[in-house]
Amino acid sequence: MNPVVLFLVMVLTLSVGVAWVWWRALKRAAESTVESPEGDQVGSNVAVYREQLAELERDWQQGLLTEPEVTSARDELSRRLLEDAQLAADTGSRLSSRARTAAVAAAPSTRSRRWLALGLALYLPLAGLGLYGWLGQPLALDPVALSQGEPDHTVDPAKLTEMVAKLEQRLTEEPQQLDGWLMLARVQRVRERFDESAQAFARALSLSANDDVAIERAEVLARGRGGFEGEPWQIIQGVLKADPDHEGARLLAGSAAYSEGRYAVALMHWKRVQSRMAAGAPDKAELDDAIAQAESRLGAQAGGKAGGPIPNQALSGAAGAPAAQGGASSGQVASSVPGVVSARITGRVVLAPGLMSKVSPGDTVFIYATPAQGSRMPLAIVRTTVAQLPFNFVLDESTAMNPQASLAGQTQVTLRARISSTGDALSKPGDLGVMKTPVSVGASGVELKIEGPMP
User: Fold this and answer.
1) pLDDT tens track of the chain, all 455 residues?
2) Which residues on adjacent β-strands are paired with residue 446?
3) Are 271 and 291 in contact (CB under 8 A)?
4) If you ran DSSP here, which 8-state letter would residue 405 be given?
5) Which of 54, 81, 208, 237 is 20 to 30 A from 270, comparing alpha carbons?
6) Distance CA 339, CA 299 (A)
7) Is the dihedral angle over the CA atoms 426, 431, 436, 441 positive or is it negative?
8) At what angle do helices 67-135 and 41-61 cross, to 10 degrees?
9) 338 vs 112, 184, 307, 315, CA distance in Å?
10) Is the Cβ–Cβ distance between 194 and 395 less than 8 Å?
11) How far is CA 418 from CA 31, 108, 327, 431, in A?
């Protein structure tokens, strides 16, 4: 249930409960008044004595009683009347005393009930708010917080690992849960387990075909392989064939073309999305910046060489041509064009002679830079083969997979060179490689010597 709706239901229920308690307390206070004693016995006794006196008077007139007998009977009746009056007075005094005592005792009780009701009326809402502040989501009621979103924070790797374990257990028991596979794929993407993420996306697509999910899978495949050639490009092209205006596919196609140095193609895709994007769209500023960078690269590229776009062969783009042995990658060619490169690192990768028997000439060698701290997403990447070692490399902005995540703006990075027998960019236990950190952006002549397993 929505946290706001749940909170409002709790407030309504609490208000009804407080109103009922208040009403019951006041009602019982009103009913607790002490009733006064009833029945005045003196008045009734006087009426009886008057009848008896009238009867004596009749008997005397009729001659049934003598005068002394009448006088004696009259005195007796008077004495009895006085005794009854005194008894009634004593009883009334005792009852009055009891009534006053009950009233005095009842007064504090009534006041207590009223104070109790007032206390509950104040305490229960405060207690409810305090409990909600402790266990609930107070930010869900703050329009400013909702408009600004949650603050950035570092995801706890231990919690992500625990989440993955629970998801995998649930999906083992219920493999037809589409939402579960999607959640697992996205968590694995956050963990940069791109191969596992792609597999989970594939399971989700087997349950329900969806172009948005297919594009997400193409993205993680490209990130895992270090390039868009092969299946990632096929997925993008298939989605665009079915829906030429698919925004996610256009954006990813532009990123793929940019990573391969095909800036005109990247601009074609991105500007098509830009033309359909609302003025206040959250991603518009980022897209505008990417378009500006691509236009700058395209202008510098055209001015440096008349033959057209320079393919980024270090990423094995559409042409897929390998770099020459011991020579420069296309990133190095691009670095000679004025204005194309603003941040770069150059160096050389060599393999220890004792490891030659453990690798094959066709094994892929990935050379890439990641932030010195935080994410391990490559800022720039090139690749070659063991047969090309030793290999002179250049990492610069032209070798970035994403113009928004490149060497520009970084001061220090971590350099890695890794050999993969499968060509998979995702590191596996036992892969040979080397890591050097920190390395300053702008450094040249950095040597990466592979002497054992990847650290």
Assistant:
1) 555 566 667 767 777 776 776 676 666 655 554 444 444 555 566 677 677 777 777 777 777 767 777 677 777 777 776 776 666 556 655 555 555 555 545 555 555 556 665 665 665 666 665 655 555 555 444 444 444 444 444 456 778 788 888 888 999 999 998 999 999 999 888 888 888 999 999 999 999 999 999 999 999 998 887 788 888 989 998 999 889 889 999 999 888 888 877 888 888 899 889 888 888 888 888 888 889 988 888 887 766 543 333 333 223 333 232 333 333 333 333 333 333 335 889 999 999 999 999 999 999 999 999 998 877 778 888 889 999 999 999 898 777 777 667 787 788 999 999 999 887 767 788 889 999 999 999 898 999 999 999 88
2) 347
3) yes
4) B
5) 208
6) 9
7) negative
8) 170
9) 88, 45, 16, 21
10) no
11) 88, 85, 19, 7
Judged by DSSP in three states, 391 sits in: strand
CA distance 317 to 263: 13
Coil, strand or helix at 280: coil
Task: Give the span between the Cα atoms of 146 and 144, in whole angstroms.
Answer: 5
Can you read off the two tokens belonging to residue 199? 């597999």
Greatest distance between any 2 Cα atoms in the chain: 163
How many CA within 13 A on the CB side of residue 169? 6
192: left (phi over 0), alpha (psi -120 to 50) or beta: left
Exposure of 408 in the CB half-sphere (CA atoms within 13 A)? 13
Strand positions, DSSP E, 45-192: none
Neighbours of 262 (CB within 10 A): 23
Sign of the CA dihedral with 254 first, then 257, 263, and 264 last: negative
CA-to-CA distance for 311 and 333, rounded, in angstroms?
10
Please tell me the distance from the alpha carbon of residue 188 to that of residue 199, in angstroms, as a whole number. Answer: 10
- Whether the Cβ atoms of residue 415 and residue 318 lie closer than 8 Å to each other: no
Answer for the pair 233, 249: CB distance below 8 angstroms, yes or no. Answer: no
Question: Taking Cα atoms as reference points, which of 243, 247, 236 lies closest to residue 273?
Answer: 247
Choosing among 2.60.40, 3.40.50, 3.40.109, 3.30.450, the CATH entry for 323-453 is: 2.60.40
Name the class of domain 157-304: mainly alpha
Residue among 189, 234, 182 at smallest CA distance from 212: 182
Amino acid present at 172:
T
**Is-contact 401 413, C-beta < 8 A?**
no
